[in-house]
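I am writing to request your help with a piece of structural work I have in hand. Here, with my thanks, is the record as I have it:
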Amino acid sequence: MRRTERYPAKGGANSLWHMYQTVPFFKVVKNFAVIQLARYTPFLPMKNFLYRTFLKMKVGEKTSFALMVMPDTMYPERIKVGDNSIIGFNTTILAHEYLIDEYRVGDVEIGKNVLIGANTTILPGVQIGDGAIISAASLVNCDIPPGVFAGGNPVKIIFTAQQMKERQKGMRENG
């Protein structure tokens, strides 16, 4: 189960209808502008600076966000990415989700030396362990242990950490 805080929708309307009662309008405007600037800039240190300074994201050293990555516009401060990780092209990292009867908010923690493939969506409240690899076009809806190779919609473990070590050892011996 993902670690999210749940809040019921009130007033007979869906939770998104009440969005600006849950997060300030000008915060969303500022975050959107910063994210759009970062999505298009090719300068990785500048992206990390923008995310750390204006969005209060915790971004590790030498972490790389590819073009078009979309961090959460409402709660980017709830996203943490470890050192030397790569977030692939057009990946979406959500720290919130609005549903009909409720909205949910949860921290997203991505470890060190993690590779996230292009066009992946990461849902709120998940942890991705150090050294994990997530294949392209995956939906990460649960925690991913360290060192595994996972992928799919919904995400499933394809190779365990032990299997990945054996595969890497075999590649070194044959390569």
Observations:
- The chain has a mean pLDDT of 96.
